[in-house]
Amino acid sequence: MSELDIAKLKPSAFFGAPYVSGDMDATVRDILSRHEGVLRAAGTDEYSLGRFRTAAFNFVPVWLSLGIDLRKLTALEIGCGRGLKGLAWAGLFDRYIGVDLDATEIDRGRALLRPTCRSPDDLILGNAVDVIGRPGGFGIEGVDVLVLYAILEHLTPEERIEIFRLAREMYARGKIVLVAESPNRLYPFDHHSTHMHFVQMLPDDLARQYLKRSPNESMHAFARSQDPAEARTQLYRSGRALSYHDFEVHFMDLDRMRIAADGYAAPLLAMQAPVRAELDVLAYLQNNELAVPRGFSRAWLDFMLWKDAPAVAAKSIRLLPPVGMPPECLMKFWQLDRYTPDRAPDRTMIFEVPGRSARVGPRVGYLILEGDDPASAIDLLLDGQAVTTARTSELRQMRPPTWHSKHLLPVALPDQEAVVTVRARHDAPAAGVHGLLIDEP
Question: What is the pLDDT of residue 329?
């Protein structure tokens, strides 16, 4: 991204309360401006650049939403790799420390730190259990934030139990625990490793034997090991999903978990809009009255856990289709039904939002849009009053390059019944609309 591209970024255009703060846009732009060039000069590939941009654009607003002075805290990330997320987040904290067992990745990360004036001691080659158990031995006064980003799925069951124990102890002491981007066992397709259906739900040995059928040929080697113990370890190193069961057994009872943010938080929805299978899992949990936090229905498990959080993630979320607009076709499980205003009467779609009897927190709606046609534009109205006009091509310029083309437009909803209207501009083709997502306590 060029400096001009970075200057156009505006995360606040996609997020509603409580994820919009006065200096959020400037903070995100500053992070990307300071580090994008360093990463490019180091020959960082586009995939890794995308992950760095995601950490800045989508996760920094979640950190800021906690409403505390992060600059007084020390964060520690287990399995940090070369420390790309640390580059994005370090400026928020007093100190951000990464720990990894891969010497090559640590060396590459320390090389990235030199132009940023951060100490190479912020990346530690070693075992995170040792670092957390005796932080003084590593020059750390204490750890206030534990980051488990895309790491739990690569640990063996025994290692997971140990990390969950550390997380539970830190949580009990009022520390913050972030679990992010771990695949969900209840999601039917394995995007992470095998690229097959239902494999993450299989018993370990059967799953390992099934790997030879994976379209991801890099997985075939994991099926050939003859030593049972080594085969099991390799299976988990390749990535085995988790579900709420792991948290309930090894972390704590679900009804005691205080979740400051989850995968349905607006910044994370903007990173990856929900798909049909996730909402199907959520509906199953709700219809069967299972007391499982809604975040455990997402394809990727994302949780900010903090027992002293001033606010907690909403309990409910639902997707409203336009009134009287049947699906154009049956979409696959990783998609949503797509509607277009130009097929509706008067090029207008109506969403009827039901009221609620008690106010326990703000209610926000997110219109999910798709497309980047320069002429594609819509007007968004609430109870007949204009809220915003959006062009999908302009929305694309307000966020970093990403692998999908969906956008979220927030609208604050009243407690009483309301009507949200989407009207296609008569001078432009219409964007595709996937529905109105309502997020409420």
Answer: 57
- Best CA proximity match to 409, nearest among 383, 431, 384: 431
Task: Give residue 403's pLDDT.
Answer: 62
Nearest Cα residue to 420 out of 338, 361, 357, 341: 341
Per-residue pLDDT of 378-426, as tens digits, reads 899 999 999 988 888 888 899 998 766 678 899 989 889 999 999 888 7
DSSP 362: -
Which ranges in the chain are annotated with CATH 2.60.120? 317-440
The two structure tokens encoding residue 378 = 């819509």
What's the pLDDT at 359? 66
CATH topology of domain 3-313: Rossmann fold (3.40.50)
What is the percentage of the chain residues whose pLDDT exceeds 70? 97
* Alpha carbon distance 255, 257 (integer Å): 6
- Give CATH 3.40.50.150 domain extents, the chain: 3-313
CA distances from 325 to 319, 381, 420 (A): 14, 18, 14
CATH of 317-440, one of 3.40.1130, 2.60.120, 2.40.10, 3.40.50: 2.60.120
Distances (CA, A) of 124 to 39, 138, 140: 20, 8, 11
- In this structure, what token pair is assigned to residue 262? 């989850």
What is the rounded average pLDDT for all residues in the chain?
Answer: 89
Sheet holding 363-370, edge to edge: 316-320, 432-440, 363-370, 406-413
* Tens digit of each residue's pLDDT (9 = 90 or more) over 184-200: 999 999 988 999 999 99
Q: What is the pTM of this model?
A: 0.93
Report the distance separating Cα 302 and Cα 284, nearest Å: 19
